Amino acid sequence: MSSEDTVGHGVSQPSDAELAEMDRDQLVKLGGQLDGVELVDYPDPWPVKGTRAEKRAERFVALWFTIAGLAGLAFVVGLIWWPWQYRAPGQSGTFLYSLYTPMLGVTLGLTILGLAVGVLLYTKKFVPNELAIQQRSDNQGNGSPEIDKKTIVAHLEDAAVRSTIGRRSLVKRSVGFAGGALGLGLIGLPVASFIKDPWKDSNGPDSLWHTAWQKKFPGEVVYMRRYTGKSDEIVLLRPEDLDAGAMETVFPFRESDRGDAEALSAVFMRSDAPVMLIRLRPEDAQRVVKRKGQEDFNFGEYYAYTKVCSHVGCPTSLYEQQTNRILCPCHQSQFDALHYAKPIFGPATRALAQLPITVNDEGYLVARGDFIEPVGPAFWERKS
């Protein structure tokens, strides 16, 4: 080795043959010298191996990883098998149904907490807390030479060995169990949506093509019902109930549901049921541009649009009377109520679905039928 063969910080560069013969400790020392690193202190957390205190600390770390694994499995089991179907107050199973969302939150949160605490405890108890001083250089923008690559790998291997993770099979098994359970839960979240076939009954009200406004049989009357906050209170709407420029959220009502507490409350839980009933001011109604094929969907100054935003399904709950704009508060999409609710601002790209409405012989506002297109965000089968 010649005296000219030096690298950073005046360290002599070994030949390739000498480099290949070096063990990990020698490479670690050489790498530190090349990087201008001086190890001031590198204490072993457990200089005496196999003590009771060391084993107790290892078991404590493994306990948290095991808790995380069990919680992760509980999350997956609850996600799939917990009774999630809606149950009205007073019905059998209401208590378990009310615990569905809290159960998912608690088990997933405990999984993440267990992993985090386990990692922190292992770092505190077993990873050496080194104290080093290093002079840094960017090597004048040049790439790392082979010697730097080998020494950094040696440093990483040395850190792994000094952390003693290689000989702690209990910790490795428990962290693998916890990580696997969490991974299973993360996989289960999107997969769970495929457990129920959305096309099992493509003509039914629970399919993606239809909503709660679909008639159950020819000639059925589907009224527009005002939401009063009480599921058993039925208030049907007439045209004179809305002032010019007003908007009200309405839900479907059928006479067959009268007296059925479960059916009356369940309709409020359906995401596709809420509809915005808008009464335009007379001067604004004269400027309406109607969508092709939906020219007769309104009843005079009354227009009905789904509240499900066509972007990602948030509720388009805001109506600005002066500008006749419908606003979605989630991502600020705006729709023009005078131009078949087409988007004019924000990320939404499709108009809100319009419900065909009229007034029946009794003078109540009713739906003439279901939406003629799916409501809400896009999915791969829809053509609009």
Describe this structure in words.
- By secondary structure, the protein is an alpha+beta fold.
- It has two domains: 52-192; 222-367, Rieske Iron-sulfur Protein, CATH 2.102.10.10.
- 34% of the residues lie in helices and 13% in strands.
- The protein has nine helices and twelve strands.
- It has helices spanning 16-21, 24-34, 52-81, 94-98, 100-126, 146-162, 169-192, 261-266, 282-285; strands at 37-41, 131-134, 222-226, 247-253, 275-279, 302-306, 318-320, 325-327, 334-336, 342-345, 357-359, 365-367.
- A hairpin with a 4-residue loop joins strand 7 (318-320) and strand 8.
- Helix 2 (24-34) packs across helix 6 (146-162).
- The radius of gyration is 33 Å and the shape is elongated.
- The model has no long low-confidence stretch (mean pLDDT 86).
Task: Walk me through the topology.
Blueprint: H1 16-21, H2 24-34, E1 37-41, H3 52-81, H4 94-98, H5 100-126, E2 131-134, H6 146-162, H7 169-192, E3 222-226, E4 247-253, H8 261-266, E5 275-279, H9 282-285, E6 302-306, E7 318-320, E8 325-327, E9 334-336, E10 342-345, E11 357-359, E12 365-367
Antiparallel strand pairs: 1-2, 3-4, 3-12, 4-5, 5-6, 7-8, 8-9, 9-10, 11-12
Helix pairs in contact: 2-6, 3-5, 3-7, 5-7
CATH superfamily of the largest domain: Rieske [2Fe-2S] iron-sulphur domain
What is the beta-strand fraction?
5-15%
Low-confidence runs: none
The CATH topology of the largest domain = Rieske Iron-sulfur Protein
| CATH top level label of the largest domain | Mainly Beta
Q: Strands of the biggest beta sheet: in what spatial order?
A: 6-5-4-3-12-11
